[in-house]
């Protein structure tokens, strides 16, 4: 009888241990709920806010409902003791030799660097990048000796037909920069303006109406169009976006090109979203997966 009781206790203990292990594994990822903050999540999971930001490549404390966060440090390799530690040395993945990479939706410098066993700084140095901003279709050197054929800097971009689209590699002229400066000043005064479908005045704005109003007030006379119309219209994709350039997104409220804003630099852009005119970050998972291209009005010289 005592033996049977001991076996039952042992079996229950094993089940409980397995259940706790399963809970721990599942808890490695947390889905943000309404009312959550980084502070609250960190406290509940006994980690620091900085840990969560580091594990998820967050630039600031902003999170949103349904966002999935890593809330524990995941080890990618099991530690195995060598049979003879004095003669066996740990191995690390070898770096690529002559590799280039085309940026796709959802990519970040951190993600690419980890995938190819290089550092973000190395990628920036090899490609002459001064910021962490990358964009879909951009081709990056992943070694110091990698080469990119002429005409292959951008593979996608804003043309409905085949072939490589034209890409502007120059910064705007002094006149263009003056227009951009004024346009951004106007755009910033519109923060908080409510969203209004078809709106193009400070009474209410949609995304393309915001562009129309801000640029016209900034000194560039453009016609009223949709975000798709501006994308396929008189605009050219830019290699290195500057503050004032356009940023386009797809598959937001409809399939295809469906949203746009004005790039502010440092991964930020200002736009008329469903909550009104606001400033957002292109590296946030929602926007980074829908980013299409940075472009510039042809009239901005």
Automatic annotation (TrEMBL):
Among CDD domains, the record links this protein to: LysM (cd00118)
Biased composition range(s): Low complexity: 79-99
Where does the secretion signal sit in this chain? Answer: 1-27
Q: By its UniProt entry, which PROSITE patterns does this protein fall under? A: LYSM (PS51782), NLPC_P60 (PS51935)
User: Where does the LysM domain lie?
Assistant: 28-71, 99-142
> Boundaries of each NlpC/P60 domain copy?
177-298
Question: Would the keyword Protease turn up in this protein's UniProt record?
Answer: yes
The highest taxon in the source lineage is Bacteria
The record, for SMART domains, names: LysM (SM00257)
Keyword Ribonucleoprotein listed? The answer is no
Keywords of this entry: Hydrolase, Protease, Repeat, Signal, Thiol protease
Record-stated family:
Belongs to the peptidase C40 family.
According to UniProt, the name of this protein is: LysM peptidoglycan-binding domain-containing protein
């Amino acid at each position: 009888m005592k033996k049977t009781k001991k076996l039952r206790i042992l079996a229950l203990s094993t089940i409980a241990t397995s259940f706790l292990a399963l809970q721990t594994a599942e808890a490695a990822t947390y889905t943000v709920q309404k009312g959550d903050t980084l502070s609250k999540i960190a406290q509940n999971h006994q980690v620091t806010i900085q840990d969560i930001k580091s594990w998820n490549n967050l630039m600031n404390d902003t999170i949103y409902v349904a966002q999935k966060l890593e809330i524990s440090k995941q080890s990618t390799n099991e530690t195995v003791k060598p049979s003879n530690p004095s003669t066996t040395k740990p191995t690390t993945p070898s770096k690529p030799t002559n590799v280039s990479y085309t940026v796709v939706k959802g990519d970040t410098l951190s993600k690419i660097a980890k995938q190819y066993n290089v550092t973000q700084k190395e990628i920036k140095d090899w490609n002459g990048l001064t910021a962490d901003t990358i964009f879909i279709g951009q081709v990056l050197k992943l070694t110091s000796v990698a080469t990119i054929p002429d005409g292959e800097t951008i593979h996608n971009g804003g043309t409905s037909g085949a072939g490589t689209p034209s890409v502007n590699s120059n910064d705007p002229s002094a006149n263009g920069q003056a227009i951009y400066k004024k346009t951004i000043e106007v755009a910033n005064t519109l923060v908080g303006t409510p969203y209004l479908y078809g709106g193009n005045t400070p009474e209410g704005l949609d995304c393309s109406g915001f562009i129309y109003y801000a640029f016209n007030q900034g000194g560039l006379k453009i016609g009223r169009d949709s975000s798709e119309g501006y994308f396929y219209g008189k605009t050219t994709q830019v290699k290195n976006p500057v503050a004032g350039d356009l940023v386009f997104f797809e598959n937001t409220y409809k399939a295809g090109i469906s949203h746009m804003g004005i790039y502010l630099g440092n991964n930020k852009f200002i736009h008329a979203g469903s909550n009104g005119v606001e400033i957002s970050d292109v590296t946030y998972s929602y926007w980074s997966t829908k980013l299409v291209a940075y472009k510039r009005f042809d009239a901005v010289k």
